[in-house]
Amino acid sequence: MWAYVIRRVLATIPVMAVVALFVFSLLYLAPGDPAAIIAGDQATPQDVERIRASLGLDRPYLVRFGAWVWDIAHGDLGTSIFTNLPVSRMIEQRIEPTLSLMVVTLILAISIAVPMGVVAAWKQGTIIDRAVMGFAVLGFSVPVFVVGYLLAYIFALELDWLPVQGYTPFERGIGPWFQNLILPAIALGGVYIALIARITRATMLEVLSQDYIRTARAKGAGQVSILFLHALKNAAVPIVTVIGIGIALLIGGAVVTESVFAIPGLGRLTVDAILRRDYPVIQGVVLLFSFVYVLVNLVIDLAYTLFDPRIRY
Amino acid sequence: MIGRRQLAGLAAAAALPAVGLRAAPALAQGSNTVLRVIPQANLTSLDPVWTTAVVTRNHAFLTYDQLCAQDASGVIQPQMVEGWEVAQDRLSWTFTLRPGLLFHDGEKVLAKDAVASIKRWARRDPFMQVLAPSVAEVETLDDRRFRFRLHRPVPLLTAALGQTQFPCFVMPERIAQTDPFQQIRDPVGSGPFRFVTDQWNPGQKAVWARHDGYVPRAGAVDGLAGGRAPKIDRVEWTVISDPATAANAMVQGEQDYWEYPLHDLAPMLRRSRDLVVQQRLLDGTYGVCRFNTLHPPFDNPAIRRAVAMAVDQRDYLTAVAGTDPDAWGVCEGVFTCGTALANEAGGEILKVHSVERAKAALVAAGYKGEKVVLIAPSDYPQINALSLVTADLLQRIGMNVELVSADWGTVIQRRASKEPVEKGGWSVFHTTSSGQSLSLPVFNLFLRANGANAWFGWPDDPEIERLRGAWVEAGDPAESLRIAEALNRRAMEVMAYVPLGFYWQPSAWRKNLTGVFRAPATVFWNIGKS
Lengths: 313, 530
Known about the structure:
The structure holds 2 protein chains of 2 kinds.
Chain A: H1 2-29, H2 34-39, H3 45-55, H4 61-73, H5 87-122, H6 127-141, H7 144-158, H8 174-208, H9 211-218, H10 223-260, H11 266-276, H12 279-307
Helix pairs in contact in A: 1-12, 5-6, 5-8, 5-10, 5-12, 6-8, 7-8, 7-10, 8-10, 9-10, 10-11, 10-12, 11-12
Chain B: H1 4-20, E1 34-38, H2 54-63, E2 68-70, E3 76-78, E4 81-86, E5 92-97, H3 111-122, H4 126-131, E6 135-140, E7 145-150, H5 157-161, H6 173-176, E8 193-195, E9 205-210, E10 234-238, H7 243-251, E11 257-258, H8 266-270, E12 275-279, E13 285-291, H9 301-310, H10 313-321, E14 328-329, H11 355-364, E15 371-377, H12 381-396, E16 400-406, H13 408-414, E17 428-434, H14 462-473, H15 477-494, E18 497-503, E19 506-510, E20 513-514, E21 528-529
Parallel strand pairs in B: 1-10, 1-11, 15-16, 15-17
Antiparallel strand pairs in B: 2-3, 4-5, 5-7, 6-7, 8-9, 9-10, 11-19, 12-19, 13-17, 13-18, 14-18, 20-21
């Protein structure tokens, strides 16, 4: 298995190279000019030109791409055009809030969605099943920002239980940290819960019709044991796959959630960088997200062996 | 379809009445020594010479000090300097620094620092560039004195040094020697607050701490002049980009001051018993509809004037700032209303307000249905509103309009294109500007008509340029006003842009803030918390 892991890790290098080329080229072709933004609305065209030259934005595509790749190869993600700060420092400042939001959302979503899906499959065709599926449709359909505003209205403004916005670092205590993350995690988790609940239900329905489940019942196994030990374990592979794929959903949703709740995470950093055309920051963050996504998929692949002994690498 | 912004407004609107009835929120009591501010934008650069961004200028007012500053009535007063002496022949000005001025690193502020700062700033400031041919040298005389030597008298020298539009901030000489087109890295100043670099998280938080070595000027605060006394230990800016979230944070007491609340949310914020919503800036924000004079149809001044005949500023201002007439004002001239040069000479065309007459004028001007590309920034609510009003107006007078919506970054890149519309160019766009920047011909970039070197739109009119040069040389206020009237008259003939009036940008703060005063820029000295 270790050989497989090493092969997969090495395979991330060409993937990241393609991502780097794609992102750089896309930004090169996209409209927008950071020099014009820096110079300000009332700058003269001459000022803009001079700033562009000072930033090296007037250099040819290949020269700029080569310099960027050379820096990355030396572990340097570059320097933000606007803040003059290293991109790595800006990412470091933002990674904790996003990671916290993702982890809390993931735990919340899995712990709600999997039991929901299992129960829906068990009670197929009943009011419970319909309620779960209704919730799933709602979760898919209602945008994250709508859920976010509603939650803020109810729990922050009306009930005054939770803060409207912001983020408290973990080092200042788990209580304040969690207090700031509850509402964003619920808002962000809605679509994720819906996705996992649906796939859990569908997979469980298939598994519950298998012969070995009938055999387990015939042997007198209890309902809980059948559902969670026999069926769920065998249904786990597609569920875990969807959880992995859903990380991309979380990354996308985090951008909106962080804006609505003013969480200083990587999502907001990305949006701000895109709006300002801060190319080094955009490139750095997209590379990071791509790397995380590749790693998550590797972890998911490895997790299959835990649930299905027939899978060997 | 309801948009995100509308939903945000609804969310905040729904929340506020209930909140107004409740006791003080429990979750968000801030310290009385920290002022928590939602700034108008994300602070991305710390160098007020490198970028003209207003948010960077606001940072600079906290961090740096000025040699001279503008009081509430617009008069330039000494600030870091005790005063200045003008030689009898008016060919040299000697400035003397106040004693006891210290940078945040503990070093004394010396005349050489002021001279280096002036030289760096002068290479970027449009006003100083106009005066530059008259300046022979800026030289250090001793630790506290420096001198401008002039080729000819420059009565506007202190107006340039003390301006608010592109202020001359003083940095240590070692920093001020940086190329003005390169960004400085070390924000050491001598202002009332010290920037806390290691707590800066761009896009989220910026922090300033009281500068204990700051010696405020004697006297009461007066606009940006007078005593700049820091009354709190820290100023913390938290970037909240979502307006509804920002409104909620204000209502809940999680923040103390919101620099630029959306006009849509202002009436709702006013319903909160804990908040004050008022105009703090002394000048309004002016709208501008800019034509591309290089290509048809707006290379024809008669067509530009035909459009101006249809413009009714009230439509634009209502679209931006709502129906409350106290929120905006009509200003049918090119200079800031209420200032010394304000006039409406030749401005009758802006009082026509008739779509029918504009239609007829358009036909008479020879409009042949050429495509008009209007570029609009969808992520900039005020400018987008102005753009949509013009798009509607142009269609109503019979023009062939294509509205191109993009983000601000794309708009400001496209507006730099001198190509025709078929090749990615543009015909008309909008922007806003502070009243400060339209008050004098040397500031007013929209007025420039020096062809390829003019501001985007590139109008070419030697008469405007001649008048602008004559204004700089004007000997007395009467002559200055006479030239300003000639400029306004000519601007109405050339019509390189249509002035769209001004709106007031309110700010919101909690009632426990003390000492909030009106000024030409957003500053936080003299403000305390009870």
